[in-house]
Amino acid sequence: MTNIRLSAVTLLLLIALAFAQEPKPVYNASVKSVTILKTDTTSVGQRIVYPDVKNAEVTGLRVTIPPGAETGWHKHTVSGYAYVLKGVLTIETEDGKKLTFTEGQSFVEMVDKMHNGKNNGSEDVELIVFFPGQKGTAFTLKK
Q: What are phi and psi of 4, to 5 degrees?
Protein backbone atom coordinates (compact mmCIF):
# COMPACT_ATOMS: atom_id res chain seq x y z
CA MET A 1 0.00 0.00 0.00
CA THR A 2 2.87 2.39 0.80
CA ASN A 3 4.44 1.83 -2.64
CA ILE A 4 1.12 2.61 -4.35
CA ARG A 5 0.76 5.82 -2.33
CA LEU A 6 4.36 6.81 -3.05
CA SER A 7 3.86 6.13 -6.77
CA ALA A 8 0.65 8.18 -6.81
CA VAL A 9 2.37 11.10 -5.05
CA THR A 10 5.31 10.88 -7.46
CA LEU A 11 2.95 10.88 -10.44
CA LEU A 12 1.09 13.94 -9.10
CA LEU A 13 4.38 15.77 -8.55
CA LEU A 14 5.50 15.02 -12.10
CA ILE A 15 2.20 16.26 -13.50
CA ALA A 16 2.43 19.44 -11.38
CA LEU A 17 5.99 20.09 -12.58
CA ALA A 18 4.95 19.65 -16.21
CA PHE A 19 2.26 22.31 -15.82
CA ALA A 20 4.47 24.64 -13.76
CA GLN A 21 7.00 25.18 -16.55
CA GLU A 22 7.14 28.52 -18.35
CA PRO A 23 4.45 28.91 -21.01
CA LYS A 24 5.62 29.13 -24.60
CA PRO A 25 5.65 32.67 -26.00
CA VAL A 26 2.58 33.70 -27.98
CA TYR A 27 4.63 35.64 -30.56
CA ASN A 28 7.83 34.97 -32.49
CA ALA A 29 11.03 35.45 -30.47
CA SER A 30 11.77 38.81 -32.15
CA VAL A 31 8.42 40.29 -31.05
CA LYS A 32 8.49 41.81 -27.55
CA SER A 33 5.41 42.08 -25.37
CA VAL A 34 5.46 44.03 -22.10
CA THR A 35 2.47 44.25 -19.78
CA ILE A 36 1.76 47.92 -19.11
CA LEU A 37 -1.38 47.46 -17.05
CA LYS A 38 -3.06 44.56 -15.29
CA THR A 39 -5.67 45.53 -12.72
CA ASP A 40 -9.23 44.88 -11.69
CA THR A 41 -9.81 48.38 -10.27
CA THR A 42 -9.86 51.97 -11.50
CA SER A 43 -7.32 54.56 -10.38
CA VAL A 44 -9.43 55.25 -7.27
CA GLY A 45 -10.11 51.62 -6.38
CA GLN A 46 -13.50 51.04 -8.02
CA ARG A 47 -14.07 47.51 -9.39
CA ILE A 48 -13.92 47.48 -13.20
CA VAL A 49 -17.28 46.67 -14.77
CA TYR A 50 -17.62 46.11 -18.50
CA PRO A 51 -20.60 47.74 -20.20
CA ASP A 52 -23.35 45.36 -21.33
CA VAL A 53 -24.58 47.03 -24.52
CA LYS A 54 -26.23 46.04 -27.79
CA ASN A 55 -24.32 48.39 -30.12
CA ALA A 56 -20.78 48.18 -28.78
CA GLU A 57 -18.23 50.76 -29.86
CA VAL A 58 -14.67 51.44 -28.76
CA THR A 59 -13.30 54.98 -28.96
CA GLY A 60 -9.56 55.62 -28.91
CA LEU A 61 -8.29 59.13 -28.25
CA ARG A 62 -4.91 60.81 -28.35
CA VAL A 63 -5.22 63.65 -25.84
CA THR A 64 -2.79 66.59 -25.64
CA ILE A 65 -2.91 68.94 -22.66
CA PRO A 66 -0.62 71.98 -23.01
CA PRO A 67 1.39 73.32 -20.04
CA GLY A 68 -0.90 75.09 -17.56
CA ALA A 69 -4.08 73.69 -19.14
CA GLU A 70 -6.67 71.37 -17.64
CA THR A 71 -9.45 69.15 -18.94
CA GLY A 72 -12.22 70.78 -16.91
CA TRP A 73 -14.34 68.91 -14.40
CA HIS A 74 -15.98 65.84 -15.90
CA LYS A 75 -16.90 62.22 -15.24
CA HIS A 76 -16.97 59.05 -17.32
CA THR A 77 -19.89 56.66 -17.74
CA VAL A 78 -17.50 53.74 -18.41
CA SER A 79 -13.88 52.96 -17.51
CA GLY A 80 -11.30 54.41 -19.89
CA TYR A 81 -7.89 52.79 -20.26
CA ALA A 82 -5.11 55.39 -20.46
CA TYR A 83 -1.38 55.38 -21.22
CA VAL A 84 0.79 58.48 -20.70
CA LEU A 85 3.06 59.00 -23.70
CA LYS A 86 4.68 62.21 -22.45
CA GLY A 87 4.62 64.63 -19.53
CA VAL A 88 3.10 64.52 -16.06
CA LEU A 89 -0.67 64.38 -15.60
CA THR A 90 -2.24 65.33 -12.28
CA ILE A 91 -5.84 64.30 -11.68
CA GLU A 92 -7.81 65.89 -8.87
CA THR A 93 -11.00 64.17 -7.68
CA GLU A 94 -14.13 65.83 -6.32
CA ASP A 95 -13.14 64.80 -2.78
CA GLY A 96 -9.72 66.48 -3.06
CA LYS A 97 -7.60 63.41 -3.79
CA LYS A 98 -4.71 63.99 -6.22
CA LEU A 99 -3.27 61.31 -8.49
CA THR A 100 -0.13 61.76 -10.59
CA PHE A 101 0.76 59.76 -13.70
CA THR A 102 4.04 60.15 -15.58
CA GLU A 103 5.40 59.11 -18.96
CA GLY A 104 5.15 55.35 -19.43
CA GLN A 105 2.49 54.83 -16.77
CA SER A 106 -1.00 53.55 -17.45
CA PHE A 107 -4.21 53.75 -15.44
CA VAL A 108 -7.93 53.06 -15.56
CA GLU A 109 -10.20 56.11 -15.52
CA MET A 110 -12.66 56.38 -12.64
CA VAL A 111 -16.39 56.01 -13.33
CA ASP A 112 -19.21 58.36 -12.22
CA LYS A 113 -16.82 60.46 -10.14
CA MET A 114 -16.08 64.08 -11.05
CA HIS A 115 -12.40 64.80 -11.70
CA ASN A 116 -10.15 67.29 -13.45
CA GLY A 117 -6.91 66.52 -15.30
CA LYS A 118 -4.16 69.15 -15.10
CA ASN A 119 -0.79 69.73 -16.69
CA ASN A 120 1.29 71.57 -14.09
CA GLY A 121 4.50 70.95 -16.03
CA SER A 122 6.43 72.81 -18.73
CA GLU A 123 5.81 70.37 -21.61
CA ASP A 124 2.68 68.94 -23.20
CA VAL A 125 0.99 65.97 -21.57
CA GLU A 126 0.12 63.40 -24.23
CA LEU A 127 -1.91 60.31 -23.52
CA ILE A 128 -3.78 57.59 -25.36
CA VAL A 129 -7.15 56.59 -23.92
CA PHE A 130 -9.58 53.86 -25.02
CA PHE A 131 -13.22 53.87 -23.93
CA PRO A 132 -15.47 50.84 -24.49
CA GLY A 133 -19.06 51.95 -24.81
CA GLN A 134 -22.18 52.10 -26.92
CA LYS A 135 -22.78 53.85 -30.23
CA GLY A 136 -24.51 57.16 -29.67
CA THR A 137 -23.86 57.22 -25.92
CA ALA A 138 -21.45 59.70 -24.35
CA PHE A 139 -18.60 58.22 -22.31
CA THR A 140 -17.67 61.63 -20.84
CA LEU A 141 -20.04 64.11 -19.19
CA LYS A 142 -18.98 67.67 -18.31
CA LYS A 143 -19.87 69.37 -15.04
A: -65, -45
Q: How do residues 60-74 score in pLDDT, each as one tens digit?
A: 999 999 999 999 999
Question: What is the residue extent of each domain of the chain?
Answer: 56-142
Helix, coil or strand: residue 17: helix
Secondary structure of 63-85 in the HEC alphabet? EEECCCCECCCEEECCCCEEEEE
* Domain 56-142 architecture: Sandwich (2.60)
Q: What is the pLDDT of residues 8-24, one digit of tens each?
A: 555 555 555 555 555 66
Q: Partners of 62 in the beta sheet?
A: 128
Length of the chain: 143
